[in-house]
Amino acid sequence: MKIGNFILCDDIRYEVGSKLSLMGVYADSIEFSVPPDKKDTWPKRIRLAVYLTADLEGKTSSAFKIRAVHEKGEVILGEGSFEQGIEDKLKIGMVNRNFAFETDGEYAFFLDVFDAEGKLIERSEPGFSVMVKERVVE
Asked: For the chain, what is the largest distance between any 2 Cα atoms, rounded to a whole number of angstroms?
């Protein structure tokens, strides 16, 4: 499987003419501004969206899962299934309105795709990563 795009952002808006607008795109970090009394208070929840495209290279997918892996475990960003299997090209645009970052540090994001029986057929490697950190504001 080849990942074409893997974009994390605040929101995805569907526009007239089959266009997408990706709002608040994250590059390599997500920074939380916190008052001094909230420093090191986890988890921190945000609205987090992902837009991705993948070439399944001839395989058929019936379901997917997007995982965020960090040093203390993993969190599911989103998952779903397709009534009819998707062949070759996969496009996913989804928003998690209550995603929880469990701690600061690096998070690697992975796409897992499954066949009709729920068997893992592909896992993206290496995953897209982002550094999560805090900035104390007075």
From this structure: 54
Best CA proximity match to 133, nearest among 20, 5, 33: 33
CB atoms inside a 10 Å sphere around CB 13: 12
C-alpha to C-alpha distance for 87 and 31, rounded to whole angstroms: 37
How many residues does the structure list for the chain?
138
- Tens of pLDDT, residues 25-83: 999 999 999 999 999 999 999 999 999 998 888 888 889 999 999 998 999 999 998 87
| Amino acid identity, position 14 | Y
Compute CA distances 128 → 2, 26, 107, 123, whole Å.
Answer: 13, 12, 8, 12
- The answer to whether 102 and 42 have CB atoms below 8 angstroms apart is yes
The tokens for 53 are 């495209």
